[in-house]
C-alpha cells in the first residue's frame, strides 16, 4: 500500500511539473506595455518561489522511497527509477524557471535604466533650450555677449555617454520585441528634439562668436581712435599754449 501511495505521489508531482512548464515556460508572452512586462516579471518571481517550495516535497518523496527500498527492495527499485526521472525533470524545471525569471528581471532593469537616461538627457535638453532662449535679447554690451556665449558653451560640452546608453538600451529591447512600439516612439521624439535643439544651439553659438568678434574689433578701433584723438588734443593744446598761429601749423593740424 505504501508503494502504491508513493507511486501516486510521483505521478502527481510529474503532472504538476508538466502543468507548471505549460503555464510558465510554453506561453507566448508579448510585452507591448510596461504594465505587461512588470506583471510578467512578478508572475515569474511567484513561479520561481512556487517551484522551489516543492523542493521539500521532492526530498520527502526521495527519503520515503529510499526507506521503502531498504525494506522492500523489489518495489523500491521500481520507484527509484521513476524517482530519478522526476528528480531530473524537477531540476530541469527549476533551472529553466530560474533562467526565465533572471532574463525578465534583466529586461525590466534595462527598461528602467532606459527611462533613467531619457530623464537625464531630457533635463539637459530643457537646460539647453533655456540657455538658447536667454541669448535672444542680449544688451549690446561685450560682457553680456561674452557671458552668454560661455554659458551656452558650458552646456554644449555635455558628454555623449548618456545618449550612447539610450541608443544601446533601446536597440537591445527593440531587437527582443520588448516594448518596441513605445520605445521607438520615445526615441523618435527624443532624437528629433535633440537634433533640433543641437543645431539651433550651435547656430546661436556661431552667431554669438561672430558678434563678439565684431564688438571686440569695434572696441579696438574706438580705442585706437580715442588714443589718436587724445594725441591730437594734446598737440593742439600745446599749439594754443604756445600761441602758434593756425597758418603756421602743419596742414593736418589746421
TrEMBL record:
Pfam family, one: Spectrin
Coiled-coil portions: 3-64
Top-rank taxon, per record: Eukaryota
Alphabetical keyword list: Coiled coil
Xref: SUPFAM superfamilies: Spectrin repeat
Protein name: UTRO protein
Organism: Illadopsis cleaveri
Gene name as annotated: Utrn_0
Amino acid at each position: 500500500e505504501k508503494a502504491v501511495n508513493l507511486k501516486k505521489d510521483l505521478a502527481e508531482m510529474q503532472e504538476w511539473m508538466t502543468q507548471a512548464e505549460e503555464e510558465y515556460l510554453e506561453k507566448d508572452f508579448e510585452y507591448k506595455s510596461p504594465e505587461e512586462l512588470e506583471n510578467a516579471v512578478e508572475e515569474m518571481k511567484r513561479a520561481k518561489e512556487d517551484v522551489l517550495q516543492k523542493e521539500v516535497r521532492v526530498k520527502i518523496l526521495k527519503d520515503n522511497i529510499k526507506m521503502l527500498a531498504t525494506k522492500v527492495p523489489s518495489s523500491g527499485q521500481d520507484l527509484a527509477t521513476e524517482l530519478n526521472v522526476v528528480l531530473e525533470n524537477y531540476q530541469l524545471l527549476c533551472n529553466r524557471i530560474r533562467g526565465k525569471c533572471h532574463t525578465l528581471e534583466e529586461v525590466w532593469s534595462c527598461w528602467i535604466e532606459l527611462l533613467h537616461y531619457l530623464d537625464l538627457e531630457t533635463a539637459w535638453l530643457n537646460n539647453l533650450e533655456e540657455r538658447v532662449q536667454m541669448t535672444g535679447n542680449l544688451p549690446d554690451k561685450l560682457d553680456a555677449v561674452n557671458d552668454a556665449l560661455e554659458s551656452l558653451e558650458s552646456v554644449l560640452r555635455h558628454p555623449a555617454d548618456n545618449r550612447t546608453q539610450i541608443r544601446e538600451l533601446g536597440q537591445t529591447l527593440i531587437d527582443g520585441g520588448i516594448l518596441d512600439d513605445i520605445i521607438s516612439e520615445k526615441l523618435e521624439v527624443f532624437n528629433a528634439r535633440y537634433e533640433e535643439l543641437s543645431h539651433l544651439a550651435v547656430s546661436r553659438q556661431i552667431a554669438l562668436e561672430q558678434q563678439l568678434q565684431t564688438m571686440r574689433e569695434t572696441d579696438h578701433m574706438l580705442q585706437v581712435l580715442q588714443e589718436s584723438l587724445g594725441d591730437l588734443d594734446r598737440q593742439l593744446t600745446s599749439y594754443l599754449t604756445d600761441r602758434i598761429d593756425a597758418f603756421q601749423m602743419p596742414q593736418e593740424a589746421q
